[in-house]
Amino acid sequence: MIVYNVTVKVDVDSHEDWIKWMKETHVPEVMNTEMFDSYRMCRILGQDESDGVTFSVQYVSKTLDNYHRYVHIHGPELQKRHKAEWDGKYVSFRTVMEVI
Predict the structure, then answer these.
(1) For residue 25, what is the DSSP state?
(2) In what order do the strands lie in the sheet with 90-98?
(3) Number of domains present in the structure of the chain
(4) Mind listing the pLDDT tens digit for each residue in 39-51?
(5) CATH no. for residue 23?
(6) In percent, how much of the chain has pLDDT > 90?
(7) Alpha carbon distance 82, 76 (integer Å)
(8) 63's torsion region: left (phi>0), alpha (psi -120 to 50) or beta?
(9) Which of 70, 72, 40 minimizes the C-alpha distance to 57?
(10) Which of 71, 80, 92, 97 would staple 3 via disulfide (CB 3.0–4.6 Å)?
């Protein structure tokens, strides 16, 4: 099982709108690619939130091939939309993990 994790720090003033947009728009678009079987969105606790609120969005895939298809076929456009909507209000990084 593969976990595609996107860690995002969102400006304090924007984070509630970002959560709503993620739940109503972005995550459904990612899941509609059918490359992932499930997802979970978590707020990371114990962080200094004076400059932003940090989240982990984890998409789960049964195969590494599905993850690669997502990254090469769907990911660039969906990331472009995210940036267009939230540019200057977040920073992010991505990791890929294998459940063992």
Answers:
(1) I
(2) 38-43, 53-61, 2-10, 90-98
(3) 1
(4) 999 999 998 899 9
(5) 3.30.70.100
(6) 98
(7) 10
(8) beta
(9) 40
(10) 97
CA distance 40 to 24: 14
Q: What is the pLDDT of residues 71-83, one digit of tens each?
A: 999 999 999 999 9
| 3-state DSSP percent of the chain in helix, strand and coil, to 5 | 40, 35, 25
Tokens of 17: 């709108």
Find the helix or strand (DSSP H, E) in which 32 lies: helix 27-32
* Residue entry with tokens 């959560």: 19
Domain that holds residue 59: 2-98
CA 36 vs CA 18, 54, 71: distances in Å? 21, 22, 12
Which residue matches tokens 């690669």? 68
